[in-house]
Amino acid sequence: ASAAIQRYVELGNALNATALDAIGSRYLCLLNATQLQAIHAPSLRLVSLDPSACSQETKNLLYQKAKEAFSDQHHLPAYYELILPYLGGAPAVDLKALSKDDVNMNLTTFVTLRRESLMDLTPREVQGLLGINLPELARWQDRAPVREWIQLQKQSELDQLHIGLTGGTQEGYINIVTPKFPAMSSAPLGTVAMAFHLLPALLLSFLLVSVLS
């Protein structure tokens, strides 16, 4: 299928609605970055695709194409439903904008958002995105990626959601990641300890020799 798509493009054919309909969700993930960039954006208005099984890079590129395709409907209530299949590639700034539009995102969509975008959302913005579905977030608080998102938030701000989320950062505390340093030497610990024990004597001897000379 990948070879057939590549040959189709090499012959100068456009990735328009007819081609995308033939490729469908089944083979959509086979498209490489160059082919994705070549998609005629308005064609996405005429096809139904599901990129949920694709790589993050593919989702990111398809989201940009879909955003371009539906740009003229950005301020209409229908925009969310049109862009919904592609939200897995949405950057944080676009999700923040959606949080102001009462979209009532379901949890299935929320947990499949682009990871770095999700982590950049505040509790209030998550509340805006989920709307009436916010209480369901508590059921996911022990599972990724919700657990990781909670750990990045202030507990006081999570408490303001009134859905029982716990695990956020307490006031006056910061999360510290302890770096792991490589071993100073491959020598046995006893040898290293002996070297440190003898070090002061060796330094003193060196200083005495330097003075006497």
UniProtKB/TrEMBL annotation:
GO terms for cellular component: cell surface; membrane. It comes from the Eukaryota. It holds the Pfam family Mesothelin. It is found in: Membrane. Keywords: Cell adhesion, Glycoprotein, Membrane, Signal, Transmembrane, Transmembrane helix. GO terms for biological process: cell-matrix adhesion. InterPro entries: Mesothelin (IPR010335), Stereocilin-rel (IPR026664). The chain crosses the membrane at residues 189-212. Belongs to the mesothelin family. This is MSLN protein.
